[in-house]
From TrEMBL:
Residues 207-220 have a biased composition (Low complexity). Residues 1-26 form the signal peptide. Residues 136-203 form the PEGA domain. Pfam families: PEGA. It comes from the Bacteria. The chain crosses the membrane at residues 241-261, 307-331. Residues 205-230 are annotated as: Disordered. Keywords: Membrane, Signal, Transmembrane, Transmembrane helix. The keyword Transmembrane helix applies. This is PEGA domain-containing protein.
Length: 364
């Protein structure tokens, strides 16, 4: 009897453990899968960093790309995905894949506040180099839920505005939506320059009933056409979208230039402290026989001033376009004597600790 009891107790214990594990799995069905995906992403990141440190760029690019896909499926933060996208973009830049590099670096810098300062600086420098080799297209689409194709390839996402990086040359952009006529636009992009394009899909005309067809109900009188005062005399929709795109581009460029000037200023301050410990004074570089490092210092000071000036000019320009775009709604009603459309665009300035821009709401 004692031996039988001893043999039953381990079985009962194992049964209780199995039941508890089943309950835990039922309560958290994704726990095991999420752990496996996180482990896979960490393994891929380790391989990618080793290949990057060894300057095996093709191997590092493939590993970072796989790690980014695994991170999207795992329980990772925006900061972790942004760091992977930045490293992937830098590897693509080293391989000469400038379009993909610009796409991933821009994706990472949308979360610049979550990235480490050295990585932000590397990503910004890399994005400037990549943008000098590709075409930046600011695309506006109305209605915003239209399906967009660039050179026959679907973008795979729907939005009212897009920031796209394309190879230099001729490109064709199409937009289509059920119940609307297809819109097509072409442009010739040049490397290092930005282009803007707006596609508006008009509603498809309703098919007229064939002659002699029986009427399904009483004939309704046609709706009267709107009075001439309610019709727009200027293409305000296109001007507003273009103004919003230019305002966003100006604010983004100004932020990048000012950040670059701030980095240079920080470097100058650190080197100045070191030179002061070595006996330098503020007038050392004024001497006729000034030390050779003074030439490099003057060059960095001029570069800091140039970036600061460009940043301020870009910010002011973006603000002017943003204010003009917002004011166009008042101009339409007050100066042109027309009634603003109900389905117009509302432009709202938006600023955070790390980003600034405009928010466009509505349908135009």
């Amino acid at each position: 009897m004692r031996h039988a009891l001893l043999s039953v107790l381990p079985c009962a214990f194992l049964g209780i453990v199995a039941a508890l594990e089943g309950v835990a799995s039922a309560q958290d069905p994704h726990g095991l899968a999420g752990s496996q995906e996180t482990s896979t992403a960490e393994d891929l990141l380790r391989r990618a960093r080793q290949a990057r440190d060894a300057r095996r760029w093709a191997e590092a690019e493939a590993a970072y790309e796989a790690a980014l896909k695994a991170a999207d499926a795992a329980w990772t933060t925006d900061a972790e995905r942004a760091e992977i996208a930045a490293e992937l973009g830098l590897c693509e830049l080293a391989l000469g894949s400038y379009r993909d590099a610009a796409d991933h670096l821009a994706q990472s810098l949308r979360h610049r506040g979550a990235l480490r300062s050295p990585l932000v600086e590397r990503a910004e420098d890399g994005l400037l180099k990549a943008e000098s080799r590709v075409v930046t297209l600011y695309l506006g689409v109305s209605p915003p839920d239209a399906e967009v194709f660039v050179d026959g390839k679907a973008l795979g996402r729907q939005a009212p505005t897009y920031e796209l990086f394309l190879e230099p040359g001729q490109h064709t952009v199409r937009a289509r939506l059920d119940g609307h006529s297809e819109a097509v636009g072409t442009f010739d992009g040049q490397a290092g320059k930005a282009s803007s394009l707006t596609l508006k899909l008009p509603r498809a005309p309703e098919r007229a009933a064939p002659p002699g067809a029986a009427s399904a109900g009483p004939v309704r009188p046609e709706a009267p056409s709107p009075p001439p005062a309610a019709r727009r005399a200027l293409p305000l929709m296109e001007l507003r979208i273009g103004g919003a795109a230019l305002a966003t581009a100006g604010l983004a460029a100004g932020t990048v230039f000012l950040l670059r000037a701030d980095v240079i200023d920080g470097n100058l301050a650190e080197r100045d402290m070191v030179r002061r410990r070595q006996g330098w004074t503020p007038t050392t570089c004024w001497w006729p026989n000034a030390p050779s490092p003074c030439a490099e210092i003057r060059k960095e000071v001029a570069e800091r001033g140039r970036f600061a000036t460009l940043g301020n000019v870009a910010l002011v320009t973006g603000a002017v376009f943003g204010i003009a775009t917002a004011a166009s709604f008042l101009v339409e009603g007050w100066l042109l004597g027309s009634t603003p459309a109900r389905e117009g665009v509302h432009v709202i300035p938006s600023a955070t600790g790390t980003q600034a821009g405009l928010v466009l709401l509505g349908v135009w």
